[in-house]
Amino acid sequence: MANSERTHVMSLRLSDDEYRILEAKTKLARNRSMSDTIRFLIIEGMVYDIDYSHLIDCNVQLGKIGTNLNQIAYKINKTGSIYQTDIDAIKREMEEIWKVQKSYLRRQPLARPEVPKFISKSKEID
Predict the structure, then answer these.
(1) For 32, which DSSP code?
(2) What is the C-alpha separation between 112 and 102, in angstroms, rounded?
(3) Could you read off the pLDDT of 54-87 as tens digits, one per residue?
(4) What is the DSSP letter of 114?
(5) pLDDT tens, residue by residue, 10-27
(6) DSSP string, 38-106
């Protein structure tokens, strides 16, 4: 694209860290300028849309399990003794924690690029 086609000027404020990152990416990409790097990232860069809503479910379930374990610990500390039913309850709660953990890992989203709406269907990434 010729410079004459670039009619929009943009001013950008960066923190020191952001500026150092941009400098490093410019050198790494062997671009002539930071403007070239920014244009490249705009055109070729990916935007990821990751849905983490399942984490809310996971946290709620783990919170309930934690409450159950606290109730068992309170009972043990209050009475000074532990019964087989308490041990069995703790084992059940620990098994539930592992189930929730495995479920969480299975539902871990894969990063998938979000294709901008202005890109034609033929250029979408699957």
Answers:
(1) S
(2) 22
(3) 777 778 888 888 888 888 888 888 988 888 888 8
(4) E
(5) 899 999 999 999 998 888
(6) HHHHHHH--EE----THHHHHHHHHHHHHHHHHHHHHHHHHHS---HHHHHHHHHHHHHHHHHHHHHHH
